[in-house]
Amino acid sequence: QVHLEESGGGLVHSGGSLNLSCEATGISFRLYHMGWYRQIPGKERDLVARIGIGGDRVYADFAEGRFSITRDVAKNMVYLEMNDLKPEDTAVYFCNALHARKVNDHTWGQGIQVTVSS
Prior knowledge:
Blueprint: E1 3-7, E2 10-13, E3 18-25, E4 32-39, E5 45-51, E6 57-59, E7 67-72, E8 77-82, E9 91-99, E10 106-108, E11 112-117
């Protein structure tokens, strides 16, 4: 059974940093693009960053230059390093796994809260 478990969220002051982790179990990790998304209550879930099976990265404009996504294939882990955090980064952050060849094969984690105080 596919499962994504996020960790590393919490409360940080503006300008601070947080590192999110996502452990994937029950999947052939090498075959999945991995991503981080975020959602503010009442709004849509937005892409933060994505890393493909070949290591290619895509960032949302708001994440470019501040956030960094990496993956460790040996550990089935994907990470999101977030620097210079701002109050508007406050959201629930979700890990996502998307099969590289099966667009209907995707899984979400349960989400983790990130709160940035001003």
